[in-house]
Here is the input.
Amino acid sequence: MNNWLDALAWLVDPENLTGPGGVPARTVEHLGYTLLTLVIAAAIALPIGYLIGHTGRGRGLAVAVSGGFRALPTLGLVTVLALLMGLGILAPLTALVILAIPPLLAGAYAGVGAVERSTIDSARAVGMTEWQVFAQVELPLSLPLAISGLRSATLQVIATWTVAAILPVGGLGRFMLDGLPVRNYAEVLGGAIVVILLALVIDAVLAGTQRIVIPRGVKALRLASKRMHA
Amino acid sequence: MIEFRSVTKQFPDGTRAVDSLSLVIPSRKTTVLVGSSGSGKTTILRMINRMVDPTSGVVEIDGDDIAGKEPVKLRRGIGYVMQNSGLLPHRKVIDNIATVLYLTGVARGRARGRALELMDTVGLDRAFADRYPSQLSGGQQQRVGVARGLAVDPNILLMDEPFGAVDPIVRSELQQELLRLQRELGKTVVFVTHDIDEAFLLGDQIAILKTGGEIAQLGTPTEILSNPADDFVSSFVGTDRGARALHLAPGRFGNLVIDGTGRPAGILVNESPTEGPSWPGQTRGPSTDGR
Amino acid sequence: MSWLLANLDMVLSLTLDHIWLSVVPIVLGFLLAVPIGAIANRYHLVRGTLVTASGILYAVPSLALFVLLPSIIGTQILDPLNVIIALTLYAVALMVRTTADALADVEPDVIQSAKAMGYSTWGRLVRVELPLSGPVLLAGMRVVAVSTVSLVSVGALIGVNSLGYLFIDGFQRNFPLEILVGIIGTVVIALVFDGLLVLMGRFLLPWSRITRTNGRLIVVQDDPVVINP
Here is the structure.
């Protein structure tokens, strides 16, 4: 139990709360890395995912590629890229973008895939252009699943940036990976607690967003079908 | 007038849904395409608004080959009502009705005003305007679908089994409503169904389709009943089983009409009905469904 | 190549460690999650609590959980038990949710007709509802298997041996080939597990291959949007 008290003491120690190596600075770094990774991954994954969802083509390939990516061990990818690309931030960033793509991609195409075919068919039949079918029907109705994909990707990116601290990069993984070899368990535990809190807060924010963006009529639809089951 | 001239549709998997079909659909009348599944009736309907393009042959509307028209523009000018309504679940009833008006750039306020009028036209209480489709009964959703189809006041209204998924009582209400609307509006209605009774009730002209989009018989209900073209048609409309053979039996208020299975179909009276056929069980007025 | 031949014994022994560390959480996760998921599906209050709890658990980064566990359950920091327990928790978190959702999605008509034929609550669960949830449970287990195999290697950071050791050792010795061997080994283990699960599915759920083409739910669930933490 001493460990917990030590960790608490470490967390409130003013020395750990200030400066470039302090908890706040590392948290900001971690958030910055995470955001950067997600923006790049989304810029690649979402257009492809929605194109697959809209056209219905290439879905088999996307499933296979996503599945294959999922089997890649994060630690291995991070270390091998660091050796091949050098010790900057580019190597872990590349590795994490690769890992964040599958959930974002799957969220987008599964989101469109979950829209009733008859809804899309009738949108086309009343004279929507392909772009309007996408922007006015598929995109809003896909949001619940697309945001689930974003949630998964975000959690994974936050977690993997801690692992990436095996390289000389910043972020909250520093505390754990610097503390372990010197057996400074107060620092290790303190760092773990901060990163867990960060992940939970971000996930809660995204869960809230998910609730907001579910189109209201769709919410009513879900309630209606629940009532029918009862 | 819509005209099909030796139209063939072959799908990529090789099935021929329609094989050299020629058909004239007169203006301001209801033409019903009736057949079992696989008869190509929906494919024929969807070739009118270019949801499906023919492999060969020509489809003309008022003498213009529609192959030369831009599909999106063509569709915005043709009403379309489908089974399960096909409404957008994330938009309110009023916005669903106004969908095509928004698409064609009508200002929001005007579009919504027109949508409210259309709710009256199809017998839907304006109180439903701000509800979502999922909060409506099946019959009410179909009324919204019909209102949406009528939004731009199109000359042509395509209806693909629009009443197929509602219960029989609501269906017969909706059928009566459609007959009323058609008397008032006089659209060129093309209606697809697999229900021969619905076809007889609604159709001015009926095309009975065999597998592969071949027309077994084209004619008015009277022509088809009085003179079925072949065994397929007799079997389809039920004359071969005596299902439509009626006879009279005396009753307290006049002669009972008894159908082929021995069930009473109605009472024979001397004055002819003023509006459309009717039968027992069909006593409800408009807009009572779902409540 | 010569490195691999010279170190074949070590690679094989690490592979066995890796398999062992993955199999236990995968199997244990399934065995624990199914009954919990069934309870969650039956009692709404429990369901809310369990779904929230599994969501929170799922959000915890793996490295943080590895280093936290010794202080919670009193193990040594180098104990492989930390990795096994952490990965079992993730597997349970994912499968409880999957089981509850899969059971909730069984056609109400089927449940009603099973009731009408005289199945008891328990018999219905075992003979009707769980088999019908099979394809979705299988999809969930495939995700669990692949992400568990990938996560085991993170344990190397706290000194628990697996193919992940090759990543750290290769990185420290600036030797990419060693890392590549580790990556390939991990992916092969994941693919073999995945293949075994698919085979088990074909054997245990022969009817589901037909459902797959017709059932909308199963097509969507074929690649559930759940990814390793």
